[in-house]
What does this fold into?
Amino acid sequence: MIRFKTLGQFIIEKQAEFPYAKGELSRLLRDIGIAAKVVNREVNKAGLADILGDHGTCNIQGEEQKKLDVFADEQFIDALSQGGECCVVASEEHDEYIKIKTPVSANAKYIVCIDPLDGSSNIDVNVSVGTIFSIYRRNNLDNPVSITDILQKGVNQVAAGYIVYGSSTMMVYTTGRGVNGFTLDPTIGEFCLSHPKMRINEPGLMYSINEGNYVHFPQGVKNYIKYCQEEDRATQRPYSSRYIGSMVADIHRNLLKGGIFLYPATAAYPSGKLRLMYECNPLAFIIEQAGGKASNGHVRILDIQPQSLHQRTPVFIGNKAMVDQVEKMMVEAAIAYGV
Ligand code: AHG
Ligand code: MN
Ligand code: MN
It folds into this structure.
């Protein structure tokens, strides 16, 4: 008897809960799942296939693109173009958003924002990388699609998810009714439901931040790091420090184990490093759906009105109590030091 449930079976089962659903979102999620399997295959054989290393071009943020960034980007855009449910893809790897012009996509209603390969500087050293995606509905099907259809607040996301290509490969996603995780079984080539109804582990006892940037952190963040390191039996401090440098993998670990991920403003990135549309909004949606919280230090990530596609933001994301604490300390520091 087959005891597992595949991603495809799960999506169809969930669709049946919405009597008026036409199956477009289901097909879109399925397409993303298929592209993820192809990317997984290439990530896994990266050392073999002469595909490691720099591609020789830079993305809009001036960062070096790796070959696998480009490959992953192409795979997801191809899958979304062929599927017919998506009218626009906004990718971290492209300056402008891409209108899908395939005949099947003529009146498609979904917009996908994607970080095709997150943590790409970790590929060369065999450390987990991932894909992050976010799905919005077009504002109005009667009007041609425009930038305002894409620059929607994160709270409008209809679905979001990530794939982590790690010691095993997982896809985790939400459509706003909780979070479910699927592990790729390489022997049958299917994502199988392994983590149903995911909730962020409580209490959170880990903090994840690039402490090398410490001297440039806002005072409230410095105070919070000291707080994490203090001894206090009642709150089980000091907390453990864990930082991979792939946001998707850091957040995935914190979701399973409990913890906070912080990327504040720094000297190199005065508005924060991570991108609102491709990284922070989708992961904020997932973490909120799992019972956690995501903030820029003052405002809920999902309530930020994006002004541009590649906008960056400081981000504090994880267990609610931990994010509340860092927000409180940022307010206190602002009052005490005027920063
Ligand atoms: P990407 O590979 O998509 O450009 O993202 C890299 C990001 C993110 O994954 C990670 O959390 C962060 O950069 C790490 O930055 P630092 O090296 O500054 O810690
Ligand atoms: Mn990224
Ligand atoms: Mn990337």
Residues 24-44 form the longest helix (21 residues). The two ends are 62 Å apart (CA to CA). The chain has two domains: 7-195, 206-337.
